[in-house]
């Protein structure tokens, strides 16, 4: 399988699948006509496929037949029922799951020990080429399929293999994290609006600040504590804000959020 020509299928075409397809089409040079998808509601699917030049089909088996690499992107509790009728068509194809909590042993049992599968957790920023895909280290893709998968997705996501027992924790940070980060972004803007800044300006400033702070850490590897210290002038305004965040329990709230996703 060649990453330049591989056909990609999505079984389920909701928020996560569309983010991946958009990232591939708009940031990784994957032509829309290489993408096929199915979903529960065909009219809605037609509209979302049209936006990318992708092909809508009615069943998971049709997706499998039309594709070399198939992304399973329905809700975890639906995977068994949706994949069962497509089992034959999936045989010998590369199956990449994004369903939370479904690991190697689950797919080995569902698809058979000869099947080629990989369990992952991506995140929605992949739509703009800034995603993460945490992958279970143990998988049964061939070397060629793994290479194709990484060549396709590494232009739009950091691909991070982790042990199976840590995939849910990685998911809390990378998969759920965009929701937590968006809450921080919104809260920061609320504070600014409360003090008179127009809403749109507040979102623009907060979003660019968050992107820039993350870029600074990624580029220089600076410890987050040192990044904070570099902003806090003695007796200045930032340390007063830091103290207010600590008084409100920011650190404990975030750690509890990670714990909550794992329960
Ligand atoms: N959202 C996220 O940020 C992340 C999600 N995930 C995982 O991605 C998966 C999808 O989540 P998400 O995209 O958020 O959920 P959505 O509800 O947005 O998407 C689910 C998709 O499944 C489709 N579907 C439902 N029933 C069937 C069926 N019988 N046959 C084919 N397709 C069907 C739905 O169709 P229709 O649209 O017509 O209703 C929809 O397109 C989950 O397993 C989740 O754990 C993983 C990491 C991050
Ligand atoms: O909320 C969820 O279950 C999925 C998994 C990671 C992000 N969204």
UniProtKB/TrEMBL annotation:
<dbReference type="InterPro" id="IPR029036">
    <property type="entry name" value="P5CR_dimer"/>
</dbReference>
<dbReference type="Pfam" id="PF14748">
    <property type="entry name" value="P5CR_dimer"/>
</dbReference>
<dbReference type="InterPro" id="IPR036291">
    <property type="entry name" value="NAD(P)-bd_dom_sf"/>
</dbReference>
<dbReference type="GO" id="GO:0005737">
    <property type="term" value="C:cytoplasm"/>
</dbReference>
<keyword id="KW-0963">Cytoplasm</keyword>
<keyword id="KW-0028">Amino-acid biosynthesis</keyword>
<dbReference type="InterPro" id="IPR000304">
    <property type="entry name" value="Pyrroline-COOH_reductase"/>
</dbReference>
<feature type="domain" description="Pyrroline-5-carboxylate reductase dimerisation">
    <location>
        <begin position="166"/>
        <end position="262"/>
    </location>
</feature>
<comment type="function">
    <text>Catalyzes the reduction of 1-pyrroline-5-carboxylate (PCA) to L-proline.</text>
</comment>
<feature type="domain" description="Pyrroline-5-carboxylate reductase catalytic N-terminal">
    <location>
        <begin position="7"/>
        <end position="101"/>
    </location>
</feature>
<dbReference type="InterPro" id="IPR008927">
    <property type="entry name" value="6-PGluconate_DH-like_C_sf"/>
</dbReference>
<dbReference type="GO" id="GO:0055129">
    <property type="term" value="P:L-proline biosynthetic process"/>
</dbReference>
<comment type="similarity">
    <text>Belongs to the pyrroline-5-carboxylate reductase family.</text>
</comment>
<keyword id="KW-0641">Proline biosynthesis</keyword>
<dbReference type="InterPro" id="IPR028939">
    <property type="entry name" value="P5C_Rdtase_cat_N"/>
</dbReference>
<feature type="binding site">
    <location>
        <begin position="11"/>
        <end position="16"/>
    </location>
    <ligand>
        <name>NADP(+)</name>
    </ligand>
</feature>
<dbReference type="GO" id="GO:0004735">
    <property type="term" value="F:pyrroline-5-carboxylate reductase activity"/>
</dbReference>
<dbReference type="Pfam" id="PF03807">
    <property type="entry name" value="F420_oxidored"/>
</dbReference>
<comment type="pathway">
    <text>Amino-acid biosynthesis; L-proline biosynthesis; L-proline from L-glutamate 5-semialdehyde: step 1/1.</text>
</comment>
<protein>
    <recommendedName>
        <fullName>Pyrroline-5-carboxylate reductase</fullName>
        <ecNumber>1.5.1.2</ecNumber>
    </recommendedName>
</protein>
<feature type="binding site">
    <location>
        <begin position="73"/>
        <end position="76"/>
    </location>
    <ligand>
        <name>NADP(+)</name>
    </ligand>
</feature>
<keyword id="KW-0560">Oxidoreductase</keyword>
<keyword id="KW-0521">NADP</keyword>
């Amino acid at each position: 399988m060649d990453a330049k020509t591989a056909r990609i299928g999505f079984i389920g075409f909701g928020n996560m699948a569309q983010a991946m397809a958009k990232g591939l089409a708009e940031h990784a040079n994957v032509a829309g006509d290489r993408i096929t998808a199915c979903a529960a509601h065909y009219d809605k699917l037609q509209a979302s496929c049209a936006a990318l030049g992708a092909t809508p089909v009615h069943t998971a088996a049709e997706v499998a037949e039309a594709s070399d690499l198939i992304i399973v992107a329905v809700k975890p509790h639906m995977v068994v029922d949706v994949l069962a009728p497509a089992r034959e068509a999936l045989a010998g194809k590369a199956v990449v799951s994004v369903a939370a909590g479904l690991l190697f042993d689950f797919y080995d049992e569902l698809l058979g020990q000869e099947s080629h599968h990989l369990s992952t957790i991506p995140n929605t920023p992949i739509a703009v080429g800034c995603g993460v895909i945490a992958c279970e280290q143990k998988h049964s893709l061939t070397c060629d399929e793994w290479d194709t998968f990484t060549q396709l997705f590494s232009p739009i996501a950091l691909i991070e293999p982790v042990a199976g027992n840590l995939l849910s924790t990685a998911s809390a940070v990378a998969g759920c994290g965009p929701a937590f980060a968006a809450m921080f972004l919104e809260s920061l803007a609320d504070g600014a609006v409360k003090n008179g800044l127009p809403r749109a300006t507040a979102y623009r400033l907060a979003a660019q600040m968050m992107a820039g702070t993350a870029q600074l850490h990624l580029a220089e590897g600076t410890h987050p504590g040192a990044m904070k210290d570099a902003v806090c002038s003695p007796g200045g305004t930032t340390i007063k804000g830091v103290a207010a965040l600590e008084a409100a329990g920011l650190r404990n709230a975030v750690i509890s959020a990670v714990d909550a996703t794992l329960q």
